[in-house]
């Protein structure tokens, strides 16, 4: 059987050659080479097919060869046997993910691979997903599951949004009341439970370690100076009283939600009402302590300090705060990341900006994003009307928000990262797809919003656009390749939204 072109791989590889014939998967086929990769591949094949390849036998060879120049790149050859060669450990891991996507059942139910040769490497070094664990809290096991699934699509960063108005989600020893008093609520309590939760330091370390085993870097975010109502529950001296804005009042009325009140857990969806006390030195003691603990527990280079929607903070105070807090992160030896509004301030040199405006930026948003680059930093692209996983895929979809319009698969896929902002190519670190969780009450809800659109963002982050002379990503083949992810996702228990835009395949 010859598999129809194109190969069912997402993200699209740099180059692929399909050859005649199949390599069947049988119990006689072994796996050998890099020990961690060997275990990972054997387990994955066994889970999917029930066939457990023998360890340390010839068949599938897994190795790292630094002679492959591109970081995170790999080559994959499927002939009479299989060779996966990574430029580094991450590259080997990605070659294995491609091999797993190519493993298919024929019409008789037999497993095997179409013979092929693939060379591959990523376009961007920052390929991220963000999980909002504040509006809805996810357990450590759920976060690990999300990490595994993101890594299978070759994402290499998971941004954890750890604090917001509704809750604080990480215990810190230096300010211990946060885990006790600031983490009890969320935006998705079911009426009988408040839906809160908080990671212990060991929980956080376990997430970081699991992520590392999948070549994923955790990017923790403490959102400041706005989105800080929950901090005031434990330490009122750090927080200003809530200030209302028109949008918040409208939304609260429309949705029948309570307005924020100082000292009372907030479970609504309003934004822009909270602020830390900017001219109070205690605030900076707090931030320094929290970020010091976080930096110690975070091996990755980034600490995200938020900076979005600080409508309750005056522009002068905001600029003062952002300059000071990005400076603290730098002193701790980390690279600050901040939402694009922080570009209004003199951010510490090298601060990375995260753009969450629209595909057609307002001049103000574009100018804010550009400021990070002028100050020696790069920009992560998260255009809300394409990369936001919490925006509704259809107007009548039961989950999600509609403030950035409707994002179907086509909208999520059909944009060019280099064309949104007027920035030099090397200033774009990559792409991140955030999942905000105001409407998400469980992992199934999260899956419904993430899938299939997360695959579109994975491809934009990894694959260079096809040209007449070179393979790469192209919308013509994407829909078909996406439909062919269905059997893998079903096997993995992912309850994806089977949008009618795509023909979903059985095998
Ligand atoms: C805007 S995007 C927010 C979040 C909301 C999200 C909902 C950003 C930096 N802030 O607080 O959850 O919209 O889509």
Written description of the protein model:
The structure is a single chain. By secondary structure, the chain is α/β, with parallel strands linked by helices. The chain has two domains: 2-120, Chitobiase, domain 2; 126-463, TIM Barrel, CATH 3.20.20. The protein is 32% helix and 18% strand. It is built from 16 helices and 18 strands. The chain has helices at residues 35-49, 89-102, 140-152, 177-181, 201-213, 229-234, 246-255, 281-297, 315-331, 363-374, 384-387, 409-413, 443-450, 453-462, 475-483, 486-491; strands spanning 15-24, 30-33, 54-55, 59-64, 74-78, 82-86, 104-105, 111-120, 126-132, 157-161, 163-164, 167-168, 217-224, 302-306, 335-339, 352-355, 379-381, 428-435. Strands 1, 2, 3, 4, 5, 6, 7 and 8 form an eight-stranded mixed β-sheet that branches. Helix 9 links the parallel strand 14 (302-306) and strand 15 (335-339). Helix 1 (35-49) runs parallel beside helix 2 (89-102) and helix 3 (140-152) packs parallel to helix 5. The protein is globular. Bound molecules: ligand TNX. The site of ligand TNX has 10 residues, from loops.
